[in-house]
Specification:
With about 170 residues, this protein is α+β, with helices and mostly antiparallel strands. About 60% of the residues lie in helices and about 5% in strands. The protein is built from six helices and four strands. The chain has a four-stranded antiparallel sheet. Helix 4 crosses helix 5 and helix 5 packs across helix 6. The chain is flat, with a radius of gyration of 21 Å.
């Protein structure tokens, strides 16, 4: 089975935060490739440099190349995608080991080629991650609904005590 261009693009975009794409013109050009400094990666991903270093130590991403100017870390596009993927997955409660596992799957997608067994394994594992993510999202929706109900209850108590109008039932308690 050949992996389509759309599947490769989807696997790359899975790691990028929604609405936040790193500018491919940022960074340093080394041997024809654009590399980004850790501060640029942090800005791109919404993670702190400290968190990015933690993911390096955990083996989630490479240590970045050295710019030769006193140890400045430089990151490839692939190395930027992994911390971005981690950010998205951590917000759903996935562990670093889960992030590493999914990142490995996404890295292998373009290489599935004609090996039917490897392709089926990749699809099955990716489906497991999707199902788990979907279940976690549903749980977060339930928790958010409970939190909004609680906020409305507090607002009604406050409104009763202060004479202010109660919050509408459809929105949040602002």
């Amino acid at each position: 089975m050949q992996t389509s261009r759309d599947e490769r693009v989807d696997s790359q975009q899975a790691a990028e935060p929604a609405g936040a794409r790193c500018s491919r013109q940022d960074g340093v050009v080394v041997m024809g490739r654009i590399l980004m400094r850790i501060g640029e990666v942090a800005e791109c991903t919404g993670l702190s440099p400290r968190t990015i270093r933690h993911y390096e130590e955990a083996g989630l991403t490479g240590p970045g190349g050295d710019a030769g100017d006193g140890g400045t870390r430089l990151y490839t596009e692939t190395e930027v995608r992994r911390p971005a993927l981690a950010r998205r997955m951590r917000s759903l409660g996935f562990r670093t080991a889960d992030v590493r596992s999914l990142a490995g799957l996404l890295d292998r997608l373009p290489e599935a080629g004609d090996d039917r067994r490897a392709y089926e394994e990749l699809v099955a594992r990716l489906r497991e991650f999707w199902q788990e993510t979907d279940a976690r999202c549903e749980e977060m929706r339930r928790e958010l609904q409970e939190a909004e109900d609680f906020a409305r209850t507090l607002h009604r108590h406050l409104a009763r005590l202060t004479g202010a109008p109660a919050a509408p039932r459809s929105g949040g308690a602002r």
